Amino acid sequence: MKHCLSICLALLALQAAAPEVEITAEPHHHLALENKSVRVFNVDVAPQSETLMHWHRHDYIAVNLGAAEVINAVKDKPPVTVKLQDGQTGFSSATFAHIARNSTDQPFRNVTIEILDDQSLRNSPSPWDPKKDEDRALETFPGGTQQILFVKDAIRVSEFELQPGATVPKQHHTGSQLLVAVTDLTLGSKPPSHLKSGDSKWLPANDSDTITNTGPTPAKFVTLEFP
Questions:
Q1: Which candidate, 89, 115, 173, 210, has a CA 20 to 30 Å from the CA of 150?
Q2: Among 147, 158, 221, which Cα is nearest to 186's?
């Protein structure tokens, strides 16, 4: 308890003293993919260390990789301890600056996806059925499941689990998608893309490729479907 209190007090002091940097200048955030819709960062914070105070100027979605316990110190607010599970996916609204401290002996890793067109998407009509797609609907298909997590900024976010050899059925949605691998998997076949945990891939609208788990163990990934 005393150790936790001392960490929080230290973070409060750091918050007051630390200048803010843009997310692109924060050394734990590594830009992995960028286009007109998203900026994707792979975040890696070593045990018992923290990020710089950095800005989030766009709404973002974060996919956690591995279990973690993080102290989230938002500027001008008390620090909050957050426990995260492997694959846990959440949404955060802009704009704010914060420090993320890894208070464990394991690396803290996630994939942070900035929604670059967030201002217009917030006011855009959603193409999704709110009764079905905002209530953690579970869809099943041969060898797999699709858990619809939430709809934010007119983007539908889902978690998929695929057994070895299973393929995601073709869907009627014609917009672009971003896929984030939580575990290793193979995407498509012409030629296949082998994704490691934390890798992301942009799938353009009307892409004809398939998502298949050709590995020997179950695969998990998260998709963001854009309107």
A1: 210
A2: 221
- Considering 71, 103, 119, which residue would you say is the last residue of a domain? 119
What contacts 206, CB < 8 A, 6 or more positions away? 174
pLDDT of residue 108: 97
The verdict on 135 and 180 lying in the same domain is yes
> Which residue segment(s) compose the domain that 136 sits in?
125-225
Task: Provide the domain count of the chain.
Answer: 2
* pLDDT of residue 167 exceeding 70: yes
In this predicted structure, what is the pLDDT of residue 218?
A: 92
